[in-house]
Amino acid sequence: MDFQSRLVQLKKTWEDNYQATLDKSSLCQAHPRFREAALYSLNVGGKRLRPVMCLEMAEKKSLATEDAMALATAIECLHTYSLIHDDLPAMDNDDFRRGQPTNHKVFGEATAILAGDALLTLSFELISALGGGDHLVHYFSQKVGAAGLISGQFMDIQSAGNETAEYMTETHCKKTGYLLSASMVLPYIYKNSKADYSQIEQWGMDIGVLFQIVDDILDYTSTSQELGKTAGKDELQEKLTYVRFHGIDKAKELAVNLANELSEKRQSLAEIRDSIFFTELPFYILNRKA
Ligand code: GRG
To answer: Residues with Cβ < 8 Å from 161, sequence gap 6 or more?
Structure first.
């Protein structure tokens, strides 16, 4: 099977089953209008990159489909919460996401904050219901909490006056890299909490850095219609991006070099060496258009 077919297959598995996964959660007991708000941003779509990465690793680790779906859905819920909150007027103030009006534009700001809160909490509910031990929940909280994604977001909005390569790298690793990396690591830990996942974790982090460099390039070169969200905002808001720091040509060169490096490093990682999905993933990310 080639990469594109595998990507479609994994995405379909997630799309076909996530509602059933959520049906077993506390979201069913929410007020119907609130449930609609929480599900709106999740249902609206997206590339589903994180759940797909999680499902592929889960298969490599021979997880049961139900358990793999719980992990993948937890990750997509967490990601969607971060997008809803990032789009709020107090943060990035965006009207469009995934080609549709943002959550607060449809349901109002207060409900959007709560919808994000609910998806964040739900991600921990799904993971803890698996009974994979404290290690799984602890790992996830380190990656998405005060030491991880939330810190990355804080550093991003406070980047003025901190324009160093170290600051930019730390921001993007935390804001983008940790969750992409966790998508690969969670199935690993669930299978064996004592396994050494450091090399997989690092590979996932580098995928995150590549993802972010390409994100910065696309924000600079694409139209809002192509991206499904407002383009050109990084420059307007003077964000510390790879394009701003290095210039567009150097940013493109960095992305190509990193994709090649990731491809090279994959060959020494037993879990992903024989996966057509992980083999082609760096180049899919490098060449993505949205
Ligand atoms: C609010 C705690 C908190 C965190 C927000 C998600 C985020 C952190 C910021 C969004 C800004 C941004 C462009 C981040 C770069 C990487 C990223 C997360 C892009 C969006 O992910 P995609 O392209 O989105 O995978 P889809 O819609 O395809 O799932």
So the answer is: none
